[in-house]
Structure formats: structure tokens, C-alpha cells
Amino acid sequence: MTIDLTRRTLLHLAGASSLGAAAIAAAQAEGTAGGSGPTFANRTPMRIGMVTLRVRNLDLVADYYRDAIGLTVMQRSATSARLGSGGVALLDLERRESAAREARNAAGLYHTAFLMPTRKDLARWLVHAAKNKIPLSGFADHLVSESVYLDDPEGNGVEVYADRAPETWKWDGGSVAMATDQLDIDGLLALTDTRTTNYAKAPDDLRIGHMHLRVGDLEQADRFYGDAIGFDPTRKRSGAAFLSSGRYHHHLGINVWQSAGAGPRDDTATGLAWFSLEVATQQILEAQTLRLQQAGAPAAAIENGIETSDPWGTKLRLIKV
């Protein structure tokens, strides 16, 4: 009874009448119908580091990521906030009170995906979401992972997910099988106590597993993030492509569902300011620098790395760690 009540609560928060409806909503959000320590996604030669967002209401958005996702506020001032987990910075927020809101059909952020260390952690967070009436936008089983979708108060997309064991992923050469199936909410909730929430904060090993971006042209974006940055393609479907390092299912999603033909981004508007890609060796960083130069892309030196931007002006910092 408790599990069924919680499931109904979650469906209500997602504005869905059934798991099938929630999966359809997740398809619109994603577009593709454990133990302790860093997950596989964060042990690859290249992996997502942190994200910086420009926001109008700093307090509202910072409180959301603290209360809804469970991130710890590491630094906070009148103009910025830094949040993370386990002492690792994951999210910077920059206050831009008078900024125009970035349009949904502009290039930019589609969602930031927070990766739970284990399936049980995802289950505990789901109970937390239900008990705190956090609005959700969809659920999905992607075969390689299980995902929940939501939006922050300024419309920035968020995914909270847990990976299945990498040895269960089905590869056909360089392409991994992914889908958008119904999420087994009952199976998730069976892993935890649904009568109360014990999710006081995000697990110490929570990280950003992948980024999903809106771009203006899929082939152009594929060349930049593949040829110039060095990601390998892992999956393609109508209007979208997925890329990764080290045989992860995807560190990066790119799509043109809303943004086909988009021009340069307005870097004074709200939304994604930049995200970082951590690289494991100096050799990788040097190879990236050379490829960027050969592609005619910007490659400005910064501390421990370089900063570049994709063809629409989304900034990416490549950092040697």
C-alpha cells in the first residue's frame, strides 16, 4: 500500500496518469525512445566536471539545487553560489538579475544529468522527491540507465539517474542499445523505506554523468564534439546524437529537436555559461589543443587547461586533473 501510494504521488508530481505517459514525457525530455567511489562515467579518460549557469534569481535556484537535488552549498555570496557533493564542486550559479531568458529554440542547455552512485540512491532520492512534492517531468528506463526528469525554477533541464552495470549494456560495434521504456518505479521503491525519507543530502559520490545540449546543426556539432574534442559516437537517432569517452554510453547528448538552424547564443542571457570536461592526461589535453587549432576553433589558455566554444558559442573548459 505504501509503495502504491508513493508511486501515485510520483506520477502526480510528473503530471502523468500512468507510467506509460511518464515514459512519453521522458522521451520528450531525453529524446532516446553500485558501490562506493566514482562511477564508471567518471573514471573514463574524459568526463564531465562541473557546470556554470547564469540565473536571474540566485537564491531561488541555489535553494532548489540544495533542497531538491541535495547538493551542498560550498560558497555563497550576493552574486554567486557554488554547490557540490562530497567536497567536489559540481555547479556554479552566477547572478544575472536583468538577463533575458534564453529561448527554448536557442542553442544551449537541454539538461544537466546528475548521476547517482547506486540504484538504491536513486530510490532514496525518489522518496525524497515525493515527500517534498518536487515537480517532475518524466521517468524512463533507457536500458543502460534509469532516469527521472525535472526542471529547475528557471527552466534549466535536470536529469537524475542511475546507471545499470556496464557489463549489461548491449553494444553492436561502436553503438550501444538505448531506449525509452517505462521505469520500474515499484522495483526502485522496493529498495528503500517509502514511509520516510533518509535523503538528507546527495551521496558524496554523486557526480554529473553527462550533459545534453541543444545545437543548431547536428552534423556540425558532431564534427566539433567528435573530431575536435575527441569524443566517440555511441548512438544516433532522428535529430540527436550521443558521444562518450572510454565506452561510456554517453557523456554528451546533442539534439536539434527545438533548435534546428539556431544562430549564435546570446552570452548575456540566462542558461548555460560553460561546462568543464576533465581529461586524465596531459597527452589528451595536447591532442585536443591540436585538433581545435586544426579545426579553426578557439583554444584559449586557462589554468590547467584550455577554453573553447562550440559553433553556437557554448563554452567548454578542458581541464587536466
Automatic annotation (TrEMBL):
Top-level class of the enzyme under EC nomenclature: oxidoreductase
VOC domain segment(s): 47-163, 207-321
InterPro entries: Glyas_Bleomycin-R_OHBP_Dase, Glyas_Fos-R_dOase_dom, TAT_signal, TPR_rpt, VOC_core
UniProt keyword terms in alphabetical order: Oxidoreductase, Signal, TPR repeat
Coiled-coil regions, chain positions: none
Molecular function GO labels: catechol 2,3-dioxygenase activity
Residues making up the signal peptide according to the UniProt record: 1-29
Keyword flag Transport: no
Annotated TPR repeat ranges: 202-235
Highest taxon, organism lineage: Bacteria
Pfam families linked to this entry: Glyoxalase
Annotated EC: 1.13.11.2
Name of the protein in its database record: Catechol 2,3-dioxygenase
